[in-house]
Amino acid sequence: MSPRTGRPKSENPKNLLLQVRMDKASMQLLDECAEKKRATRSEIVREGILRVMESLHEDKK
């Protein structure tokens, strides 16, 4: 038998889907952030979530 081909399995698969309703201005801001950071919209959203959590932890101190 030949070895398995394809991409290796991810340690943290991103298999959950989130749909968000946005106004045009918010979408433009998201796209601008993604373009400037050379990232995807999803990466920007995940980074935003982490920043909010960090600020919440700082507020507790």
Low-confidence stretches: none
The count of helical stretches stands at: 2
Secondary-structure element pattern, one letter each: HH
Average residue pLDDT: 92
Largest sheet: none
First-residue to last-residue Cα separation? 58 Å
Structural shape:
extended
Radius of gyration: 17 Å
Give the proportion of residues in helices: 55-70%
Count the strands? 0
Beta-sheet strand percentage? under 5%
Task: Describe the protein.
This protein is mainly α. Helices cover about 55% and strands about 0% of the residues. It contains 2 helices and no strands.
Q: Which key features would you list for this structure?
A:
61 residues; mainly alpha; 2 helices; extended
Summary?
With 61 residues, the chain is mostly helical. It contains two helices and no strands.
Write the layout of secondary structure elements.
Layout (H helix, E strand, L loop, with lengths): L23 H14 L3 H20 L1
